[in-house]
């Protein structure tokens, strides 16, 4: 392992480089890139890497960047791109196409607020708006997890039992531009972990139709197969965890990560970097004799409903924190998790840190106190965080 001080953008680019080089005995590596803050530094570093049998293609838009990845993946290349916010919105048509074509594209998304009004700071809304698009989605808590998740994303996406694209999400500036001590694996290790991609039905010299018009029944069958592939992700991920630990000496985190949760009177559920703040608040509360616990949701698609329900079991007060808002409804994570607690449990939603507001332990403790005092859940609460 090679320990370095890396920003999230640079960590993601170097992980993608290692993965791309690992496919040099296959059909190589292709990346389509177009700049947008705060993901630009990732593609800038990627453009400067020497990748055997690799091509980083600079295009005129995010839509075209994903089109390059679609073409590369369809021909059997290992593919990568990165984008953010309105750039993700612009490539949405091709994001859906990549998923429905069952192509194992990996994208690092720097979660940023959608505009207007224009804001370049952290918000999960840009990727969560595509939660039903057929991509796997992983939300990272630090830069080391970002590296590890990019590598695991390729292992999952390219497995014949899955064959789905993957979004690896890092929060704008909180991770993308923050340098942390990060261990990079060697190329030999990545070669062992990521075998050369052998994509079934890849394009080549034999003419094939890709994405043609089909019948209603064929679409029903296709969607059923896609849904079933999502259901197989957990089994493949456990295998990837075992292999990763054997090769790299550390184990990637589970889809859900509880923290001092067993005896908690109030359990705080969150996703992304806010989870680290929640864990700090839990420690502060425990030092005062308050039984607070936490649950970090790391994998949003496929949604780990069973794993979340197992942790929520026995907890009468649950606070769900979202760094996003589904306008007219509430937080997206709260919306999907609120039905997983025990009957009669209070599951209260809170939206905070929208547009990059600084979420601090005192905010988490205030949320926990509010949830603990409720006898019934109310409408989701949109709170203002510090800047």
What does this molecule look like?
The chain is of the alpha/beta class and 387 residues long. It has 2 domains: 2-248, 3-Layer(aba) Sandwich (Rossmann fold); 256-382, Rossmann fold. It is built from 14 helices and 15 strands. The strands form 3 sheets. It has a 7-stranded mixed sheet. A 6-stranded mixed sheet has the order 9-11-10-13-14-15, with helices on both faces. Helix 1 runs parallel beside helix 2 and helix 1 packs parallel to helix 7. The longest helix has 16 residues, at 216-231. The radius of gyration is 21 Å and the shape is globular. The two termini are 37 Å apart. The mean pLDDT is 96.
Strand content: 15-25%
Global structural class:
alpha/beta
Q: State the distance separating the first and last CA atoms.
A: 37 Å
* CATH architectural group of the largest domain: 3-Layer(aba) Sandwich
Rg is 21 Å
The main sheet comes to: 7 strands, mixed
Please name the CATH topology of the largest domain: Rossmann fold
Number of helices: 14
State the name of the first-level CATH class of the largest domain.
Alpha Beta
The domain count comes to 2
**Strand order within the widest sheet?**
3-2-4-5-7-6-12
Average pLDDT across residues? 96
- Per CATH, the superfamily of the largest domain is Thiamin diphosphate (ThDP)-binding fold, Pyr/PP domains
Q: Could you give the order of the helices and strands? A: EHEHEHEHHEHEHEEHHHEEHEEHEHEHE
Q: What's the helical proportion of residues?
A: 25-40%
Low-confidence stretches: none
Global geometry: globular
Number of strands: 15
């Amino acid at each position: 392992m090679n320990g370095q001080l890396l920003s999230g953008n640079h960590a993601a680019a170097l992980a993608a480089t290692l993965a791309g080089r690992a496919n040099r005995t296959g059909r190589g590596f292709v990346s389509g890139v177009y700049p947008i803050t705060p993901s630009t530094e990732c593609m800038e570093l990627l453009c400067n890497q020497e990748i055997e049998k690799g091509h980083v293609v600079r295009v005129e838009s995010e839509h075209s960047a994903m089109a390059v990845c679609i073409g590369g993946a369809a021909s059997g290349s290992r593919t990568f791109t990165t984008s953010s916010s309105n750039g993700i919105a612009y490539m949405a048509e091709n994001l859906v196409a990549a998923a429905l074509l069952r192509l194992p594209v990996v994208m690092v998304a720097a979660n940023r607020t959608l505009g207007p009004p224009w804001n370049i700071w952290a918000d999960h809304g840009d990727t969560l708006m595509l939660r039903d698009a057929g991509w796997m989605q992983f939300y990272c808590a630090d830069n080391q997890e970002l590296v590890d998740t990019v590598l695991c994303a390729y292992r999952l996406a390219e497995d014949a039992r899955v064959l789905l694209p993957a979004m690896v999400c890092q929060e704008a500036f909180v991770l993308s531009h923050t340098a942390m001590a990060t261990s990079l694996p060697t190329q030999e290790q990545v070669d062992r972990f990521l075998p050369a991609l052998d994509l079934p039905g890849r394009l080549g010299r034999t003419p094939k139709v890709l994405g043609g018009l089909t019948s209603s029944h064929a679409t029903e069958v296709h969607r059923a197969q896609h849904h079933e592939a999502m259901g197989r992700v957990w089994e493949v991920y456990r295998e990837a965890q075992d292999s990763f630990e054997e090769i790299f000496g550390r184990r990637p985190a589970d889809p859900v990560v509880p923290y001092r949760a067993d005896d908690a009177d109030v359990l705080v559920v969150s996703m992304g970097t806010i989870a680290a703040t929640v864990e700090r608040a839990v420690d502060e509360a425990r030092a005062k004799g308050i039984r607070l616990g936490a649950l970090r949701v790391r994998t949003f698609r496929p949604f780990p409903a069973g794993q979340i329900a197992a942790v929520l079991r026995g907890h009468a007060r649950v606070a769900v924190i979202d760094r996003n808002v589904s306008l007219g409804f509430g937080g997206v994570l709260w919306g999907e998790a609120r039905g997983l607690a025990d009957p009669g449990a209070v599951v209260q939603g809170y939206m905070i840190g929208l547009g990059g507001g600084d979420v601090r332990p005192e905010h988490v403790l205030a949320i926990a106190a509010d949830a603990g005092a409720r006898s019934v859940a109310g409408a989701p609460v949109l709170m203002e965080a510090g800047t």
